[in-house]
Write a structure and sequence with these properties.
By secondary structure, the protein is an alpha+beta fold. Helix content is 42%, strand content 12%. α3 packs across α5. A four-stranded antiparallel β-sheet has the order 1-2-3-4.
Amino acid sequence: MPTPECTRRLTKDYKVFQKNPPPYIQAHPDPSNLLEWHFTVDGPPDSPYEGGLYHGKLVFPEDYPFQPPAVYMCTPNGRFKTSGKICLSMSDFHPQEWNPLWSVSSILTGMLSFMLEEHETYGSVRCSDSERRRLARDSLSYNLRNPFWVSLFPEQAATCRERLEKLETEGYKPEKQTVDRTGTDRAGEKDPPGQLFGSLLKSGLLLAVCAGLGFMLWSI
């Protein structure tokens, strides 16, 4: 549960953000959890992300603003992984560098600035510009498959549909898998090799047990 100071500060940050949002960024707290904010980045012009829309989230500690939030990216983008935290100077990876005067706007502006650079950090990936442009196109249908994102960002969802319609007239065909509220495309996931081996082993053992029981019943 957030402290009273945390609640006051996040409420203030949201009012300031709504009044003067940073360029290319929108953000809203989860209606059921003030400590979890979701944001959408509109790919800036003249970048490999142009035309894409990217869903991410901030998870604040209960004693914010005295401790920094964790930063996640949910939409595949070619710059950050979507499976864990991102190491940024304003994130919980560097609490010793955190300044309580920094706001949500400061954090997300810094995140976008880092996204447009090529410096490596924990949670970053390397991709060609052509791959990032492909992911920018795919981001539109990807976000629309997430009902939570659509409900939280109706204007951005409308923008996604408009851009997608234009791309489809040019021959683009989006994927049709479902995405959960965190932005994870469950239908597109693959089991890691170790997990896959474990699943096969369990299946083999189950078949062996069933075969043994069947033989016993046949012998009686």
